[in-house]
Amino acid sequence: MARGKFYHWPRCHVATLTRSPGLMAPLLQQQTCEEVRLGEEAIRTIPENGLEREVWEENTVPKEVMYVLLVCSDGCFETQGFASWLLQLRSLNGAQVAILPIIAESGFRFPSLTFHSELLRIPHLQSFDLGSYAKIIRALFGELWFFVAFTPQSCGSKELHLRAEQAHALLVLARPLAERLAAVEAETKVQDQDEDTQKAVIAMKTISSGSNLSLTATVRSDLDMAFMAEIYQMYFNPTVGERF
């Protein structure tokens, strides 16, 4: 049965969602469950005052969730648990939740352009709103900067901490699901327009995007971008990481 883990803070509510119950092992068994350790380590970077943990085994996501670490393995989006979770997150609190996919399996296949039609051929998903579900998944993977790749079989404690710092930084920076869905909708509309209209819309989106980035930089001034750059350098260049 699919499981999730929910963390309560005074001003921050984080959920870790995964397909396999084995990935949500009890705290005493986490030394053999690197995927869970990654989520735990990332969440520990948030102040622990008032920390509580709640594990649920049903498909209902707590309404207080503000941040989600989505642990992705191959075929996870073809399960009822993930479909239920993501559609609920779209409906909760105006879809203001921030979601960070964590690729926890080397064989993970990214959703293709024909993903929606592929979902239509899966019998146990036919009771879900698959059009909306496909848009959510497209929104999550439309910004390739906003996901963390992680292979637990070859991960030591130092690499785990590095991935955790990376995950936390990206989760804090991630746009709410509502904004990412709006971007998907805008792209769909542009595809249906003539060439001149497309150019005009793209130009306006570029101007708007520049303004949003400026605003984001102001709001997120407490985020050390140099530190994030160092993290990514170590992540994409293993020879740098050997010094640590």
Search tags:
alpha/beta; disordered C terminus; 244 residues; 2 domains; six-stranded mixed sheet
Give an overview of the whole structure.
This protein is α/β, with parallel strands linked by helices and 244 residues long. It folds into two domains: 3-173, Rossmann fold, CATH 3.40.50.10140; 177-223. It has helices at residues 34-44, 80-91, 115-119, 130-141, 157-173, 177-191, 195-219, 225-236, 238-241; strands spanning 3-8, 13-18, 52-56, 67-72, 98-103, 148-149. Strands 3-1-2-4-5-6 form a six-stranded mixed beta sheet, sandwiched between helices. The longest helix has 25 residues, at 195-219.
How do the strands and helices of this protein lay out in sequence?
Layout: E1 3-8, E2 13-18, H1 34-44, E3 52-56, E4 67-72, H2 80-91, E5 98-103, H3 115-119, H4 130-141, E6 148-149, H5 157-173, H6 177-191, H7 195-219, H8 225-236, H9 238-241
Parallel strand pairs: 2-4, 4-5, 5-6
Antiparallel strand pairs: 1-2, 1-3
Helix pairs in contact: 1-5, 2-4, 4-6, 5-8
* Count of extended strands: 6
Rg over CA atoms: 19 Å
Question: Which residues sit in consecutive blocks of at least 5 with pLDDT less than 50?
Answer: 1-13, 20-38, 45-57, 207-244
Helix amount: 40-55%
- CATH topology term of the largest domain: Rossmann fold
The CA-CA distance between the termini, in Å, is 39 Å
Give the class from helix and strand content and strand pairing: alpha/beta
User: What best-fitting shape do the alpha-carbon axes yield?
Assistant: globular
Taken in chain order, the helices and strands follow as EEHEEHEHHEHHHHH
Q: What oligomeric arrangement do these chains adopt?
A: single chain
Strand content is 5-15%
Provide the CATH architecture of the largest domain. Answer: 3-Layer(aba) Sandwich
Within CATH, the superfamily of the largest domain carries the name Toll/interleukin-1 receptor homology (TIR) domain
**How much is the average pLDDT?**
62
